[in-house]
Amino acid sequence: MNAVGATLRRSPARDATAAPFSQRAFPGAATIAFAACAALAIAWGASIWSLWAMSSMGDVPMPGGWNMSMMWAPMCGQKWLRVAASFVGMWIVMMVAMMLPSLAPALRRYHEALGRTGARRTLWLSVLAGLGYFFVWAVLGVVVFALGSALMEAALRLPALARAVPVAAGVAVMAGGALQCSAWKARYLACCRAASVAPKMRRGSYAAWHHGIRLGVHCIACCAGLTSALIVSGMMDLRAMALVTAALTAERFAPSGARVARAIGLAVIATGCSMLVLAVAGH
Description:
This protein is mainly alpha-helical. The chain has one domain. Helices cover 82% and strands 2% of the residues. It has helices at 2-18, 21-55, 80-114, 119-157, 159-180, 183-194, 205-222, 224-234, 238-253, 257-282; strands spanning 60-62, 66-68. It has a two-stranded antiparallel sheet. α2 (21-55) packs antiparallel against α3 and α5 packs antiparallel against α10. The longest helix has 39 residues, at 119-157.
């Protein structure tokens, strides 16, 4: 009888330990998965950047004292579809490397909110949410390539437009910094920092995909200022990428995220001002 009583007394504790196993296993599994993704991103990114570095030797000097990168247009023998695929592939690599530190806590909260769905099922839904998140960024990459290619083609045909590009770049970076300091930024930053998950949310694949899409849309809105500044100032600049990644991570995790975001915005505005001064002086 005592043995049976002891067994009954131990069973609730044992159940309590077994129940959150998926939640306790998630940090380790996520760390391994994210480390693997980051390693693949770095390896793939290195090969892509080396190809872009080789192709940059053929950059076209433009009126206004700047060079047009061949990543926006096909070189001899290349097709537009191949150029677009290469650009979007490079874009996804960049976003995976830059956004993983900010995405991981949101995915962990989502994983914990799924509760007792089953370890494998919960992990799959978390992965699906992450794929939905990066799908949104991939769509943005397609839009960026389409707009950038159209602008570069117009600059090739219109010398007056080409001469205005350095000034427009400085203004665009300043606008990105101003957006970084705006109420829009503060609202979406608060959303991304909270990344709230409904406790009784649906646990199906569609719901997971939809949650990832929602996270991605909010994140793109939150990062609009810094992303636009990075695109304009030089997507292939590893130093600029590292600075933007550090800025995004700091504003998400610092105790006073809104203040950090505004300080970053002021620094971006100062950078845009210097670009504008150099562009005007060049004219």
